[in-house]
User: Fold this.
Amino acid sequence: MRVFNFAAGPATLPLEVLEQAREELTDWRGCGMSVMEISHRSKAFVSVAEEAESLLRELMGIPDSYRVLFLQGGATGQFAAVPLNLTRPDSVVDYINTGSWSKKAIAEAKQYCRVNIAADEAESKYTTVPDPAALKLTPGAAYVHYTPNETIGGVEFPYVPDTGDVPLVADMSSTILSRPIDVTKFGVIYAGAQKNIGPSGLCVVIVREDLLGRVRPETPSILNYTAMAKDGSMLNTPPTFAWYIAGLVFKWIKAQGGLAAMAERNRVKAEMLYRAIDESGFYRNPVAKNCRSWMNVPFTLARPELDKKFLEEAEAAGLTNLAGHRSVGGMRASIYNAMPPEGVDALIAFMREFERRYG
Ligand SMILES: *Cc1c(COP(=O)(O)O)cnc(C)c1O
Assistant:
């Protein structure tokens, strides 16, 4: 039996995608082999790769002046790749610190260049985003980096920072494809696949073409945007199966009505869950209302000694992986694109019943 899986990542995938993958697993498109077993340079695989890219371009409205890369090393690899591709050791870069993932990106960047913290939400315990007017941006910075959705804290920017001519770099791992965005506002967008795109092992990078060619000479080739763009992300063997599944997920999103339809579905799911939390006297979400994530909804119980029971009973009811990140505790429901509205309905019904019995 399929459960409703609220894991933050690797996360639930659309059932239709898994069913198609199962159907094609041993004999893909009449090859007599699985897609995992064919050369990444074969015509058949190259068509899969190209189709995935063109679907992503169509879904996100990515202009021709951007390159789309399918890389490895996760979003964490990009924490190093971004400064290596866009700076010199004496460059200044601006980072907005809104929580756990911002901090990791900052720590990595500090190894390669001079990091200015343009805003730090420590005072609110990372339950807020900075006011746009409060950003202390460096004129002439090599780039500005931010995390549109903090997967652990459940904090999401309700705006895109305006950085003028300075390239804006976004770690969209846990929010990409959740709604339409204006790609032209960004210099680089990157996202580990295992939240809203597909299996882990793949990282999608969308980079504006004029930012290529700035790479530092010591950059490992597999993190080198310029080299990877030149070789169609096939400088070495790419994660072919993950790439193939990503293509199926893009096709699924398109069939759902694209990103506008995804956004509406996500907005409704999130609003229902936050309303259930706010209306109870038992559950609580600490995040400021203007920046609550549509994708990751952390919440606590009025009595933390009930956490274990909550998780056990939820699991028994087919609602899994609701424990909060090990760094914060409590609960977290990740409700990415592939979480159906019925999953959120079931969670809310369970939460109400749990509160009735133990609240
Ligand atoms: C999951 C996540 C990461 C880490 O991704 P890896 O692929 O494990 O390196 C980085 N940033 C954000 C916002 C994430 O959600």
The two ends are 30 Å apart (CA to CA). The longest strand covers residues 114-120. The first helix runs from residue 15 to 24.
